[in-house]
Amino acid sequence: MSTNTVNFEELLHDYFIQNGSVTLPGVGTFRMLRISAQVDFASRKMLPPSYTIRFDHRHDTAQRELFDYVAQRIGSTDLEAIRQVNNHAYEMRNLLLNGVPVTWDGFGTILPDSGSGFQFEPERLSYHFIPGVSADRVIRHDAEHQVRVGDQERSRSEMKEMLTHDGPKRRSYNSLHKAALVMTLMAIAIMILRFVTDGNDFSSSRSGKLHPVEAPVTYTFP
User: Fold this and answer.
1) 119 in helix, strand or coil?
2) Given a cut of 50, is residue 2 above it in pLDDT?
3) Per-residue pLDDT tens for 130-186?
4) How far is the CA of 63 from the CAs of 19, 100, 120, 121, 213, in angstroms?
5) Which residue in 4, 78, 118, 162 has its CB near the most CB atoms, within 10 A?
6) Residue 200, by phi and psi: left (phi above 0), alpha (psi -120 to 50) or beta?
7) What is the mean pLDDT of residues 193-214?
């Protein structure tokens, strides 16, 4: 296969996708980082995993695997593959040293040296074959589950009883309250019954005329 028919940037991108990283001599290393799936409550969707790229300009020594891959793809010897990779990296580095940003499709933009090495603005990679899915949030208020409290595990119902300020005492208080109400109603009923049977007068059974009585002589004088 002739090297003229191969897009070298696409070739390196293919290697990057398959291996998760690629190193260009004199430029640095690009590594793929996976961003976990996230839930978007506003749109009620679970977003698929996405990927971003981290760049490290301090590690710029290419691995043997890259040269073997390039040699196989372009159908050349190992020495020719090394030459092709180094030439591509040299052209990129030369542009950066001259203050020209380099945009690499599928990677991002490499910015010129700012004194501490090349800077990198990555693309956020997403793939259409991993679509988002609908995600409706389900809240079960009465679901029974175990929770850890200190060094013990308690059920949801036990915790609810503990957090309602002593549930057994509250039930006992409610029972006494009901008993007092029943006794009050019974007392009222008895009073109404006596009112009816005593001729509409509560004090009729105790009423009567009062007759003064002289007090007995306590002391006698000669």
Assistant:
1) strand
2) no
3) 666 776 666 666 666 676 777 777 776 776 676 665 545 555 556 777 888 888 888
4) 12, 27, 21, 24, 132
5) 118
6) left
7) 61
Q: In this predicted model, which residue has the larger pLDDT, 212 or 67?
A: 67
Check residues 80 and 197 and name the one with the higher pLDDT. 80
Contact between residue 202 and residue 195 where contact means Cβ atoms under 8 Å apart: yes
Q: Which residues contact 111 (CB under 8 A, 6 or more apart)?
A: 96, 101, 118, 119, 120, 121
- Residue 219 is encoded by which pair of tokens? 């002391």
Phi, psi angles (nearest 5°) of residue 127: -125, 135
Name the CA radius of gyration of the chain, rounded: 47
